[in-house]
Design goal:
heterodimer, A: 197 residues, alpha+beta, Alpha-Beta Plaits, three-stranded antiparallel sheet, two-stranded antiparallel sheet, 4 helices, 39% helix, rod-shaped, B: 350 residues, mainly alpha, 0% strand, binds iron/sulfur cluster
């Protein structure tokens, strides 16, 4: 009988305790973050969409080689010496320190559909040109839209630079050939004088 | 005093009767929307969430969106179901629930049908909903539905008795089965409500624990009768998918759903009427009373009880079947008998 009454008391009492808890929670601060309107702060080192700072990239190709899924493809072109534009690479963005550019990056594509966010590319990059951003809202309806083209050069400039380089190379070749011919001539001349003596 | 404003205004003709029959239906549809929203919001708040927020300001249009969704769904009848019973069950359930509204005194001036056997009638017609449950469960030809229906019936029968005892006790106190009459008796402020022993001399404090206990018993039993947590084993999602309405979709499911919410309203209305004075003002009949205030008080009381049901639902876990039977037969039933006996004795003595 005592047990019976105790059971009854426990039943009522524990329900009241539970109700008190739920009542308190009703007026507590809610944990919901209304996502598209507000967002959790994303840590600075979060690995999300990749971003290339084309000014800083010197075209060394390290990132493409280290990428485990081969999603970066790079094409480069040698810069013609004495290019009238005198292109530069931003070597140290903090101190605004620029160096002469050796390579044009004519193509820099990242397929974000393939990327596994391992962050190896950002680690090997000598000039911190490729970096993760905190932007993660870039899903798209077509896979092709995830192929990002980062190069700062237009196709026309690429063509003109190519031409410039070719001309330069042709000129160099001609100069070289002329120099070789001259050397051969001089050699022949020297040989002739030696045999005359 | 005439208890039906429509007959007073429109005369004793069919227009008045149509209005009387249709008005509660409109009210109940509106109430169901509000109750669904309350359920969503309260459950969310108790779990530290915000609940629906995107449909309309603060998500208040969410129930409408859900109704529209259910309306759009295809109307399916399973191949092996018993077509007639399957299609009839949801309407049976809703009819049973709606029929009970006929005798609920919304206000002094609006009792759809002021019959003398109100309490008895409510008990009789609310059993129709049970038939709907069994019909739906059996006709679905699905083991979960059948199990859910059987559990539901077992549960309703076990809890009907303590609930009936509680109701009977108030009938003894009021010496009437007419719900409007029961309300009228509880005149004179909050301490004359039947939860506090009804009107009487100071020594009614002796009977107060019993009426209070009966109110508690009726609250528990009504939760079980409406199949709500902690007594939702007939539709326990983790065991029975959805219980007797597993096979139902679209409009028929909406009908079951509506039936359940109307049932919730009915038990809350009975509770408010027989224990909390119905349309009586808590400050006595001179302050804030009258037909319109009556309606307000009645709705406020019903709302409070509905809120309690929602509150309990999101507080307590589900009972096991044997615990449910334990509670029903070993605790509620003897206690309700004791309380009933004490109240009857008290009524005899004074
Ligand atoms: S982060 Fe993406 S792009 Fe960079 S190396 Fe990894 S897979 Fe390749
Ligand atoms: S992004 Fe960095 S690693 Fe990749 S090619 Fe440019 S400089 Fe080299």
């Amino acid at each position: 009988m005592a047990n019976y009454i105790k059971n009854m008391w426990d039943g009522v009492y524990t329900v009241l305790v539970g109700m008190k808890i739920t009542w308190k929670h009703m007026f507590m601060k809610k944990v919901t973050v209304q996502y598209p309107d507000e967002m959790y702060p994303i840590p600075k080192n979060a690995r999300n969409r990749l971003q290339l700072y084309a000014d800083q990239c010197n075209g060394c190709n390290s990132c493409a080689r280290i990428c485990p899924v081969n999603c970066i493809s790079i094409e480069t072109l040698r810069v013609t010496p004495n290019d009238p534009e005198n292109p530069k690479v931003l070597e140290d963005p903090e101190n605004d320190h620029w160096l002469p550019r050796k390579l044009w990056v004519t193509k820099y594509d990242i397929d974000m559909a393939k990327c596994c966010y391992c962050s190896l590319c950002t680690t090997v990059c000598p000039s911190a040109a490729i970096q993760h951003t905190t932007d993660f809202e870039y899903s798209s309806y077509f896979k092709e839209d995830l192929l990002y083209h980062f190069t700062a050069m237009t196709p026309e400039t690429v063509v003109s630079k190519k031409q410039m380089l070719e001309e330069h190379q042709a000129k160099e070749k001609a100069a070289k050939a002329a120099a070789a011919a001259k050397a051969a001539e001089e050699q022949a001349k020297a040989a002739a004088t030696a045999s005359a003596n | 005093m005439e208890t039906n404003i429509f007959i007073q205004l429109l005369g004793n003709n069919w227009i008045a009767y149509t209005a009387i029959a249709v008005l509660p239906l409109g009210f109940l549809l509106l109430y169901a929307l509000v109750a669904i929203l309350a359920e969503l919001k309260v459950s969310a708040w108790m779990q530290d969430r915000l609940g629906p927020m995107r449909t309309g300001p603060w998500g208040i249009l969410q129930p409408l969106a859900e109704v529209v969704k259910l309306l759009q769904k295809e109307d399916i009848t399973p191949d092996l179901a018993n077509k007639v019973l399957y299609n009839l069950a949801p309407y049976m359930m809703f009819t049973g629930a709606y029929a009970a509204v006929a005798v609920i005194p919304f206000s002094q001036q609006f009792v759809p049908s002021n019959i003398n056997l109100g309490l008895f009638y409510i008990f009789a017609v609310s059993a129709i909903a049970t038939i709907g449950v069994v019909m739906g469960g059996w006709a679905s030809n699905n083991k979960y539905s059948l199990l859910g229906a059987m559990r539901s019936v077992a549960q309703i029968i076990s809890y009907e008795i303590p609930a009936a005892m509680a109701i009977l006790a108030t009938a003894v106190l009021a010496s009437s089965l007419n719900l409007n009459e029961i309300n009228t008796v509880q005149d004179g402020g909050i301490f004359n409500w039947f939860i506090f022993g009804g009107p009487g001399p100071w020594f009614k404090v002796f009977v107060l624990p019993f009426t209070f206990g009966l109110c508690l018993i009726y609250m528990i039993a009504s939760l079980a009768e409406t199949n709500r947590t902690p007594f939702d084993i007939p539709e326990g999602e983790s065991e029975l998918v959805a219980g007797y309405h597993t096979e139902y979709g679209g409009m028929k499911f909406a009908m079951f759903f509506l039936g359940e919410y109307v049932n919730m309203f009915i038990v809350s209305a009975i509770m408010a009427t027989i224990f909390f004075g119905g349309w009586q003002s808590p400050f006595g009949s001179s302050i804030m009373s009258g037909p319109v205030w009556g309606l307000f008080w009645f709705l406020a009381k019903v709302g409070t009880v509905v809120f309690f049901q929602i509150w309990l639902r999101w507080t307590l876990p589900r009972l096991r079947v044997d615990q449910l039977m334990d509670l029903g037969w070993k605790y509620l039933l003897p206690m309700s008998f004791i309380c009933f006996f004490a109240i009857a004795l008290w009524k005899m003595l004074i």
